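Deliverable D4.2, example record:
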Amino acid sequence: MNRKMKRRVSGLLIGIAFIGIIVLLVMTFSDGRHSEYVAKAITLKHDVDEPHAEIARLKRQLALLKKKGCNLEEDLISLPVIFAVTPTYARPEQKAELTRLYQTLLLVPNLHWVIVEDAEAPTPLVKNLLASSGLSHTHLHAHTPPAQKLKAKDPHWAKPRGVLQRNTALEWLRSDGPLKVAPINPDGEPLGVVYFADDDNSYSIRLFEEMRYVQNVGVWPVGLVGGLMVERPLPSSDGRGVASFNAGYKPERPFPIDMAGFAINLATLRNHPDAKFLYEVQPGYQESQLLKQLTTKQELEVLADNCTKVYVWHTRTDKPKMREELQWKAQGRPPSNQDIEV
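Output generated by the structure prediction step:
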């Protein structure tokens, strides 16, 4: 066998060995709980139709963990799971925004995506996107009552959005679902942190590592929100929680903070079973409604380098203009996306 052929055979064997290691890691993930999660994915609808997507995800996460100096056999077992909760609804830009979000989430080790559709039943678009993403996920749905829906010309703040969807996620987080995907503490409770990751924001992957070990409620700045370049908590001078917030919109709120600006330890949520979002609150008070049931300003954990770094931005996408599409419809022509998922 000549030298060139030997190099080809050697490369092929190395590739096969690497894939074998990946499969072995998945099968021996944790003390059986994670292998059960992978092997019995039917329970949480974690079907991945494209195996190469799962392999690609694991390769990226292994590279990140090695870069951080993690002991893969020990650290993966005890690494708290980040439960990223995303309410979503059908609109022209939905798939684009969910794609942007999941490709960021793919870079975060031990993350479970809880996506909740505002729909009467799960839609094929979201189901297909989740299946091809390679992400560990739970797919839920909850249909907003017509009386609570925004009308076409209503401003986005006229009625609270995502209330029922986030509450549906809270119900799942307080169920046995997290026990199947997270490490378990000595009391038999799952280890994790909950973050409300809306699909119209932009995220640095550093944000997720900031929040992973939150003990109660952690807070940080959010960019491009509330009419300011940045809204942020102002830490107390004695190092105990937050003294106040620099917020332009209704700074008198109990917690004048954006939904993207905090994360909650999973145990804190599970220990407060009645804490939830409500429709009957003033605009901008959803965050305060939840947080005042869980914590105080003095108990908040100040993250992101003492709240001096911005790792998330409120970059709401403009609605696309569909003038030509409407003209085609008026002319009786088929839609431009007929038989194509956009």
